[in-house]
Amino acid sequence: MKIGIAGKGGTGKTLIAGTLARFFAQSFKVLAIDNDPSMNLIYSLGMDPSLRDTTIPIAHMTKLIMERTTIEGGGSVVYKANPHVSDIPDLFKIKGPEGIELLVLGTVEQPSSGCLCAPNVLVRSVLSDLILNRNEVLIIDFEAGIEHLGRGTAKALDVLLIVTGAYQKSLDLTDKVITLARGLGIQKTFLVGNLIEDKESDALIRDWAEKKEVEVIGMIPRDKAILHCEQKGESPFESLGTSTPAMQEIRDVFRKLKHYYVSTE
After folding, report:
1. How far is CA 176 from CA 6, 162, 214, 255, in A?
2. Which one of 78, 140, 143, 222 has the fewest beta carbons within 10 angstroms of its own beta carbon?
């Protein structure tokens, strides 16, 4: 199963990605992909925080990028459109708890739309190869915005989860992501509300989702215990388990995704 997770920055996208990966790892082999420039998935997975300072994202491996994308005699602006990348995940993935593996792709700083610069070519090719050819459960923490979809890297996803808050800026971005996801032919798009304060916030998202004809798969309440974990750089999965309503709701999202996967096999 290949699950992409997108949403506006600050909605808790990476926290949800890491926690879902931990739940899936109890039953499946999981490869988590960090495609967000902040590189915070390490924290949410419960891995050694020092790895964040020592791990170089694939997007910043200049030597590797040149080796895989350069066409001999092609000059500085001509690159291989389909470089060999199938070995890259196994060369650079990092071992985590419960058998989870993490690949830090990173992103290219301020790329232009559809940029075909060498780092983008490599990152896009690795993502495509992962989605099309890997057999693990993939949990992909995309960039906060929608650039990853604009590059066409999410075409073969089984599920796209869009994390949103109950405020207009987040819903506006969510609307754009839904439109792009449908245009790319992603098999299923689900909405997850996060940091829900009250019944009004819950109703706002559900009413909006009904108008947009997108299914809400979870409503995660704001949780001070999770905030404290985030402040300390700790994994809520390891520190809290399912002891809080928010963690229980994320577990329920996992169960629904697992059921969806089994029912569509």
Report:
1. 11, 11, 13, 27
2. 78
Domain ranges, ordered by start, for the chain:
2-264
Please tell me the distance from the alpha carbon of residue 35 to that of residue 148, in angstroms, as a whole number. 9
- Domain 2-264, architecture per CATH: 3-Layer(aba) Sandwich (3.40)
Measured distance CA(196)–CA(209) in Å, rounded:
15
Element (H, E) at 30: strand 30-34
- HEC string of 13-32 equals HHHHHHHHHHHHHCCCCEEE
Is the whole-model pTM more than 0.85? yes
Contact status, residue 82 vs residue 125, Cβ threshold 8 Å? yes
- Which one is predicted more confidently, 188 or 154? 188
Phi (first) and psi of residue 200, to 5 degrees: -65, -40
